[in-house]
Amino acid sequence: MRKVYFRLFFILLSSGYYSTACLSQSIGIGSNQFVPALTLEVKAPSEGLPANTGIAETGILRLSQNSGDMGVLDFGFGSTATGAYVQATNSGALGTHYSLLLNPNGGNVGINTSTPGTNLEVKGNANIDVNLGVGAGGNVSPHILLNTGGLFFDGSSNAIFGISSQPTLVLLTTNQTANVYGISTSPGINGFGNNLTATNLFGVYSTIEVVAQATVTNLYNYYAVAPVISTSTVTNVYGLYLENMTGGTTNYAIYSAGGKNYFAGNVSLGTTPNYTALLNLNGGHLRSQQTTAPAIAVTMANGITAAAVATGSTDMKGIVTTTGTNNGTNTVLTITFNGSFTVAPVVIISPANASAQSWTYFVNSGTTTFTINFSGGGATPSFNYMVIE
Length: 389
Prior knowledge:
Blueprint: H1 7-15, E1 27-29, E2 40-42, E3 61-63, E4 71-79, E5 83-90, E6 93-97, E7 109-111, E8 120-122, E9 132-133, E10 146-147, E11 267-270, E12 279-282, E13 295-300, E14 304-309, E15 317-324, E16 331-336, E17 346-351, E18 360-365, E19 369-375, E20 382-388
Parallel strand pairs: 1-2, 7-8, 9-10, 11-12
Antiparallel strand pairs: 3-4, 4-5, 5-6, 13-16, 14-15, 15-20, 16-19, 17-20, 18-19
């Protein structure tokens, strides 16, 4: 390959003597004479990353146009450590940057592959430092790391996954231990000493929208299925495992603001698990946290002048006190629940003081009230009650 230097030729071209030129030899452009390795080779006197201020660029090649807006495309080589670059900028203000379009009219783009099968295909690892937008025209909120909006079902598959994770742990040494995480999230807040206040911080946040006359049989914000275990040994399997929640003024492992809670298997409460019955209570007590006592009325007096429900009584348990002495005929006290039961509960009563021991009594219960019926005995009888649905 012969050296060809066209300093005079390019002067002629720029002067308008020739409008086109076809050259059959390689061209080298640079400050020193060299043999060009390709059809066109441009050498710069030094290397460096593109300038971000002023108008003095450090690149090797610039493509520009005569539209007057000073937009240019610069090519250069930073170093063997940083690599080469392509930068769309403004020749009069290098701190101004423009978008770089790859195949804007169509065609695929491949990184580390010569046969991309999609609009963008990356063979190997990819690192997104700030935001990654998927769908929705590529628009990403500046506060969203991964946005998978705009995934449309076209009938070609029976499932759509916003995020699908299937990591596989390959142990290359004997007795090697490791943790495998499908999805790991550790959001945090750093106020940098500026007293930053955040109302809510979510590790995982899920909300589902069903619109435009869609029909859904079951909707799950979180759904876990039994694992597939083949020729392996797994000691414990957890559908959901929560560590002891600490650090807050009030700590909740599970907090349900409403709705029904359903458990098909046995439930164990307490420090020592025991699953021998539908509900097992170990090392503690069941307590109603209701703060409003049920209402009480004397609906048939016969000597009883007043009745009351003791402090701390609830719909589930409590003490009924009375004033007066029964005249030997039936007295009826009506207790009204704060909330209705689905079916009439079982109400158990027992004497709460010595005066009630000699009384004859029975109880009737409904879904909204129960009555204590008694006669005979001493003055001012009191009764314990317990309600079981």
